[in-house]
Each structure stands twice: as C-alpha cells, then as structure tokens.
Specification:
The complex is a heterodimer. Chain A has strands spanning 4-7, 10-13, 19-25, 31-37, 43-50, 53-57, 64-70, 73-78, 87-94, 104-105, 109-113. Chain A is mostly beta strands. By secondary structure, chain B is an all-beta fold. Chain B contains no helices and twelve strands. In chain B, strands 2, 5, 6, 10, 11 and 12 form a six-stranded mixed beta sheet that branches. In chain B, strands 3-9-8-7 form a four-stranded antiparallel beta sheet, with no helix packed on it. The radius of gyration of chain B is 14 Å and the shape is globular. The relative contact order of chain B is 0.34. The chains are: A mainly beta, B mainly beta. At the A-B interface, β5, β9 and β10 of A face β5, β6, β10 and β11 of B.
Chain lengths: 114, 114
C-alpha cells in the first residue's frame, strides 16, 4: 500500500487554466504538507495542515489554495496558472510531535504550464 | 529562522569510493536533522534521522551521518558507494518543539560511475 499518494503524476496545462492536485495518506498522520520543488531541485514548504487546520502558510500567491476535507487528504488548487508555476509538487505527511516529527513524502506531481 | 547549507552541489565518484556530503545548519536552538534521497524520477525517501542520543546515526543502504553540535554539522557518509546510489541528496532540519517547518538544503547531486 502506498503511504502517501498523489494524483495526477503529470499535469500539462495552458497558462490561465485552473487545476487541482490531490493527496491522500494512509499512515494515520494528523499533519499534511505541500512542497514545491523548482527546476534547480530546491524544495520549499508551501502549506501545512494539522487536523484540517492551516498551520503553515508560506509566502505563496493567493492563486494557490489548499483544502483539507479530512486529516487524510490535502488537495491543492491553483487558479490562473502561470509559467512560473511549473515545478514538481510534493505532498507529505507526519504525526505532529515536538520531538519525533518525521515527514513522509508522496511521489510528486510534475506540473508543466505552457 | 533556520537555514541549511550543502556545499557540494555536484559530486562524481567511482564505484567503491568513499562518500562524504557536507551539511551545515544555522539555528540557535536544538534541532532534529534528516537526510533524504531522491532517486532519478522518484520521490523523496528518508535515509536517516537524528533526534537525540548517539550523534552517529545509521540509516538505510549503508549510509550513516554524524551530528557535531559544535560545528552545526550533520555530514552524510558511506564507506563504499555503488552505481545505484546515483541520486540527489537533501539535508533537512526542523527545530525541536518549534513547529513542523522542515527546511531543506539545496541538495547534492551524486553521480556514481562504473
């Protein structure tokens, strides 16, 4: 069983479109994350949800809107896609703890905006 | 805010050579430290982690890392690399008890030649 899964794996779309990426985890974790990996492989956190509540919201354009219907799912909706949004988006999950917080990553979604 | 530096951006080794990848972090308090590996076209996988105790931690696939608090370092080592170790390696840090914001280094691309 895949611990953290994302769909779709690849997403090619035109500028200006709206798209969503879905993430699900079956690890029973209470916290989920979205990271963006740019063309230089640099990883940066975008959002984090704990028990469906937003707890980390980095400086991300408000075209990006995460939604967590339950603690096992965290979706990312992107409005008015731009060329600079092209990247690999990774979902991750962890059990929030002050001492032993380890994040586990999904397979990534490669978004290409044309 | 914490930051992570990986000084080696690209490393090329022959099979059976020894590996050491540098990682230094900047943060005033205690931290948890991680090394993740990303094989070509794949997602991030946890190699090893340090929370407390013995500063020499062993991970999967023969990797180990040593936490040297006085140097703010967490270097990754492997005595004898294999061609299959070709991948991108990321060091990451999260403050202990300070939320769950994982900060990544810029990554080191390791290529192992036959």
């Amino acid at each position: 069983d895949t611990a953290v899964s994302q769909t779709p794996k690849y997403l090619v779309t035109q500028m200006g479109n709206d798209k969503s990426i879905k993430c699900e985890q079956n690890l029973g974790h209470d916290t989920m994350y979205w990271y963006k990996q740019d063309s230089k492989k640099f990883l940066k956190i975008m959002f984090s949800y704990n028990n469906k509540e937003l707890i980390i919201n980095e400086t991300v354009p408000n075209r990006f809107s995460p939604k967590s219907p339950d603690k096992a799912h965290l979706n990312l909706h992107i409005n008015s896609l731009e060329l600079g949004d092209s990247a690999v988006y990774f979902c991750a999950s962890s059990q929030l703890s002050t001492l032993h917080d380890t994040q586990y990553f999904g397979p990534g979604t490669r978004l290409t905006v044309l | 805010a914490q930051s992570v530096s990986q000084h080696n951006h690209h490393v090329i080794l022959s099979e059976a050579a020894s590996l050491e990848l540098g990682c230094n972090y900047s943060y005033g308090g205690t931290v948890n430290l991680f090394w993740y590996v990303q094989y070509p076209g794949q997602h991030l996988q946890l190699l090893l982690k340090y929370f407390s105790g013995d500063p020499l931690v062993k991970g999967i696939k023969g990797f180990e890392a040593e936490f040297i608090k006085s140097k703010f370092s967490f270097n990754l080592r492997k005595p004898s690399v294999q061609w299959s170790d070709t991948a991108e390696y990321f060091c990451a840090v999260i403050p202990t008890g300070g939320g769950n914001k994982l900060t990544f280094g810029t990554g080191t691309q390791l290529k192992v030649e036959l």
